[in-house]
Design a protein that fits this description.
alpha/beta, single chain, about 270 residues, 10 helices
Length: about 270
């Protein structure tokens, strides 16, 4: 069975849309667990009224993305966990497809589907694991891709058309074996937001498992729909704190020093 875990902090209308798309497309062998991270613009109990079959967990404070997902897994009954952002829309019934991969290849630890924007254009969702060089290359190529620079669009489109082992997949839509997730201690709860997906993928790979990207399962991700402009500075601060923690865990002392100097000189070091 598949346990779908959705974390929301406000924007409950997106959560409702996501659950409705799940109910429309998935026929059986799944459960939905919603973790409300102390929303202040809606009553999460409305979800239970609309969808009485879901499991609802209401946190009294915003625990962060990773910790809230860890909380959701404690009530999960499925052998496969599916961490899904609330700003997503399911397009097809993929449960049997995902189960097939995990059952037939014990070396697969995580699976990432293909993500699409609201207009059905490609959204970048996997890459090499972060390093000081990889991050610059990834951000530069991603910027060109989203600016529709034709050579990069062609390269990326081809790259996302084939099934392949990758460095990491985004936590916006991530399948993982439950027993593996539990054995690894779940998401690193020191990372309030950002880099928790790359950190998890790194630990999965270090444990000898593969990270598989599959283009045949497509999910719409309304990227940024759950953000508020008034908390943008806070998000940037969380990003840099998690980035520093990721480097301290997985990169060399030299790269850690490079990152710290870069953040200091560019005025981006977190407060």
């Amino acid at each position: 069975m598949l346990s779908i875990i959705i974390v929301q902090h406000n924007n409950q209308n997106l959560t409702i849309q996501a659950i409705e798309s799940i109910k429309t497309n998935l026929r059986k062998d799944y459960e939905v667990i919603v973790v409300d991270n102390c929303s202040n613009d809606n009553d999460p109990n409305i979800l239970k009224e609309l969808f009485p079959e879901i499991k609802l967990i209401i946190n009294k404070e915003n625990l962060g993305f990773g910790k809230a997902n860890n909380t959701g897994t404690k009530t999960a009954n499925g052998e496969i966990l599916f961490f899904l952002n609330n700003d997503t829309i399911i397009k097809s019934d993929f449960v049997r497809h995902i189960e097939y991969y995990f059952q037939n290849d014990p070396s697969i630890g995580i699976i990432g589907p293909k993500l699409l924007n609201g207009d059905f254009s490609l959204q970048l969702s996997h890459d090499n694991l972060p390093s000081f060089v990889n991050e610059f290359v990834t951000k530069f190529s991603s910027k060109l891709f989203y600016q529709n620079f034709d050579p990069i669009v062609k390269i990326k489109s081809k790259k996302y058309s084939v099934r392949k082992n990758v460095g990491f997949v985004t936590g916006a839509a991530l399948f993982i074996r439950k027993n593996l997730f539990i054995d690894l201690g779940g998401f690193d709860e020191q990372m309030f937001m950002y880099f928790e997906d790359a950190d998890l993928c790194m630990r999965v790979k270090d444990s000898g498992y593969k990270i598989l990207f599959i283009p045949e399962v497509e999910i719409i991700h309304l990227r940024g729909a759950s953000w508020h402009n008034d908390n943008f500075d806070s998000l940037k601060n969380h990003y840099r704190k998690s980035q520093l923690l990721y480097y301290s865990k997985h990169r060399s002392s030299f790269e850690n020093l490079l990152l710290k100097y870069f953040l200091l000189l560019s005025g981006k070091y977190p407060g």
